[in-house]
Structure formats: C-alpha cells, structure tokens
Input
Amino acid sequence: MADYTEMWKSLGIDIENHNALLAGLGQAYTDIFLSQKNRPEGMKYFDFVMSEVHGLRIKEIVDSKAQGRKVIGSYCVFVPEELVLAVDGVAVGLCAGAELGFEAAEALLPRNTCSLIKSMFGFKLGKLCPYVESCDVIVGENTCDGKKKAYEIFRPLVKDLYVMDLPQTKSETGRLVLKEEYRKFIAKLEKESGKKVTVHSLKKGIEIVNAKRKAMIRLAALRAADPAPISGLDALLINQVFFHDDPVRFTDSVNKLCDELEQRVKDHKGVFPKGTTRIIVSGCPMAVPNWKLPMLIETSNAVIVGEESCVGERGTRWLTEIKGNTVEELLDAITDRYFNVDCAVFTPNPSRVNYVKEMAKKLHADGVIHYSLQFCQPYIIESGQVEKELEKSHIPTLRLETDYSQEDAGQLKTRIEAFNERLKRK
Ligand code: BJ8
Output
C-alpha cells in the first residue's frame, strides 16, 4: 500500500493507533483468508480491495468530495443507496466489527450494549475510521432501542447526524411511515448536495443498485452446489465489501467471480470436499472485520453456504421494480422494496424464519447456526422462535451468543463441533 499518512492526517485520523489497527488487520487477513485452500482466482480483486480498504478507496472518496459529491454514511440496510446515488452522492456502510475503543465507548454507553454499537463509538472516539471521518452526513435509524438511544449520544460527536424514523410493524401505516421518512431523506439529500432527485437520476440509481444486488443473488445461488465453489468466509467478505466499494466496479467483479464459479460448478470443483457439512448462518449482521464465527465454523469441517443476515441475503435478496414515470411512483417502488426487509426489530416477523427454511432447502443445508450478538434483544429474543420453527421442520439449529472478543473462541468451537457431530448422525 502506498503511503497515505498525509491523507489520513487531513481526515483527523489518529495515525499511531490507526497504524496498529492496519497491522493487526493485515495479519488477521493473512491468517484467516489467504491461508484458505482452493480459493477462486476472482477473490484476488477482493483481496486487493481489503489491502487498500483504508487507502485507495478512501482516496477515491476524498477525490469525489473534491469534485463536489457528498459522502453519506449509514449503519443500516434500511437507508436506500438508490436515493444517495440519485443526487450523485457516495454511499458508505459504517458498521464496524472490531473490539476497538471499547473502553472509551463504555464511558458513554452501558457495558451491556451490543458490540456493534460499541464499535461504532469506539471507531469514532479512537479516530480510527477514515470512512466515518470522510462523511458529510451520517444517517442513523430508529431500529432497535440500543441504536435509537445511542444516536442521541453520538450526535455531538459527529459533523451532521441525520436520524431516520422506522416503522416496527409491517402494516399499511408502517409502510406510510417508511415512505414519508424516505421522502424527508430525499429533501435532506437535495439540500446537502444542491441537486434535485429526478426521474432520470432515480432510475439510474435504482439500476446501479439493482445490478449490484442481482450479482449478489447470482453468487448466493451458486453456493447451492456440492462441493461448494466458494467458502463462506470469502462470500461473507464480498457481502462486507458490498457496503463500501464503488458499486459499478463491485458489480463487475462479483459477476466475473460468478463466471468462474459457474465453471467450477460444471467441473465439480470446490473449496471443501463434496459431502462436507453445510451450514447456514442466520442472525445479526457481521461487519468488517468480524470473521470470528465463520472462521470457527469453517475450521471445524463444515462450510457455510448462506448468510441470512443484513450482511448477506437479507440485505440483497430483493430488487426494486423500476415502475412508474414520476419520482413519486419510483419512491413507492423503493418503499415496497425496503419494506420487505425482515429485521428482528419488526413485530411480528414471520417472514424471516420462513426464508431461513427456504434457504435451507435450496442450498441443501444440513443445519442452521443462529448468531446473536450479546445484548441484542431483537435477535436473541427472536432466536427462540426461530429455533423452534426450524427444528419443527427438521432443520437442526444451534443458537450462539457472542461478541467481538476472542475470549469465547474455544468454547464456541467446542459447541460447533458437537453440533457438526449431530448433523453427521442425521
Ligand atoms: S435492518 S439487523 S442493519 S437494524 S446487533 S445494533 S439490532 S442490538 S444491526 Fe441491523 Fe438495520 Fe436491523 Fe439489519 Fe441493535 Fe442488535 Fe446491536 Fe443490531
């Protein structure tokens, strides 16, 4: 990587701590990703992206800002990238998956806050994330109580925090709330960028994001093959890069990788031997560099064949139907698309478990591991119903709760191995 110190300094990054972060990240990446066997050639692009994740991509973003484009950061898949693109903005996902700056975060938040929220504070307070520091606007959303209340404390820490309200039920009123919130968000984007959302710009934004999601749907379907043509770790990585790479280049790279995977499937070539135990991971999102659980699963004689998560199919499986010839009609189509997202903050939320069942069937999974971050009430509470429903459908399920630390790695591995034994006896 080139020397980006001056750029990071200009963004207010704490250089010393940031260098330590990059060194740790580089080592973890080598140990976890580069040590995998039989990786597809197409992963080289994503290896490169990761090697430049705080370098070249940030430079591109800084250059876009210099050209007058606004950078809009977010922490949730309910924030439509289509709208950001419609004002020629740059959308970046900001969720963080590392246990950094937690001491500082815990000075502002209760200890029993989920790691995702603590990490969001840790990266900001530690001045460790050039994505956060590049943002002109950061969008929060009233989803779980943890995030909702945390944004109140987060507001004075950042330049411009815009909080979107979200419905909690899939009712007609809920849909209206979502549409109104998206309308207000358009007004905010127009004010920030000085650009109008037009039918043309919105259609273009939808097309770009649809193409990106279509590529991810294609990738997800290829994982039904046995042997699995790609590891769960690599597929997760692609889902993570989804949130901060240039969307058009990302789509092109995923499609190229899928061409290669299609050939692998035809040649019966895979990353693990045919017949390896197949797992679906369902639950909380895993943000970069949260790779602990997939790494433990895939070093326990099993392969992950799908993620039912916002960093996975919950974030990518629906497209926006391009229907209508007015901004209002297109806004309806966008609202319809996002209103499908079955996050556990909705009550009731039956479509989520139904989709896990569907995934298990189409991906020929042997079992499901339900992953909740400690103190995440929506997913932990919902996990009981998910387990019951899946077991009733003869899909073995293991519920795990963890955080970003490595302390419980041994214990988790023992439980995963015991679960694999159960799957083998099935
Ligand atoms: S749409 S899953 S990205 S809210 S893990 S912060 S829920 S206490 S992340 Fe999410 Fe949007 Fe829903 Fe998806 Fe709260 Fe749970 Fe923490 Fe969470």
Q: What stands out?
A: Residues 76-78, 114, 116-117, 143-144, 146-147, 284-285, 310, 341, 343, 345, 373, 376, 378-379 surround Double cubane cluster (CB under 6 Å). DSSP finds 19 helices and eight strands in the chain.
